[in-house]
Amino acid sequence: MKQRIARWLDSDVGYSFRNSPVAMLAAVIAFVCVFCAVFANWVSPHDPFNLAVLELSDARLPPVWSAEGTTKYLLGTDDQGRDILSALMYGARISLVVGLVSVLLSVLVGVVLGLCAGFFGGWLDAFLMRLCDVMLSFPPILIALLIAGIGRALFPDAHGSLAFGVLIISISLAGWVQYARTVRGSTLVERHKEYVQAARVTGVPPVRIMLRHVLPNVMGPVMVLATIHVATAIITEATLSFLGVGVPPTSPSLGTLINTGRDYLFSGEWWITVFPGLMLVLIALSVNLLGDWLRDALNPRLR
What we know:
This protein is mostly helical. The chain has one domain (2-51, 71-302): MetI-like (MetI-like fold). Helices cover 71% and strands 0% of the residues.
């Protein structure tokens, strides 16, 4: 493991990372957010969603630096007495899981369709590209909102796992188009190169050529696009949850936390909304900065 890390640090990408303070700072912020989200059960000071330990007398307490604040709740509490700091850790977990899984599903669908469209061409290419044009004519958030709303209407009494599945599918269907168009353009270039022609002459099946020869050479732009798309998917999930068609209201998503505190924003309890919003901004900004660095590191023309 240590040898692999040392080899990566000595590579061109590792050298670019070591000489980019912005990328290193973004990586530290992203690591802290992910670590706190994954190990929220152990690092959070309270369990904000355990009804047995909630105290309504502690509701709407300000942060610790305020006059009425207490060290028991560093960032204050919400209207039900839940610790904001602990709620942020649990909420970031759901937002990250939904964002990562939806991006992985979008990458899988987009890469497969784009690879087939660029490699085989003909009517399949024309059909898939026209489908992409139709999908691009609608805003992604509108597509996700429509699909999530239809899922809620068809399954009004759905339990948590089904609601999460509908949310992930809605975000994935709104994001696969970019991967399909990117992979299709790269595949059109790669399929005419000598190594692909040599594989065809030797009788290698088309599917094997696509998977073993073309696919590895078109994954660079996909990695950059997926990194940036993670932040977009997290923001989309927060938006849908804020509008009430995302995760169930009882789930500690960042969107539901922001929605909970909006009624108290103008009455003085600003921390209920501001801190979840800042957490969302930190995650999205750090992931976007890492995506920008990865784009520059993998593109020799930008060095």
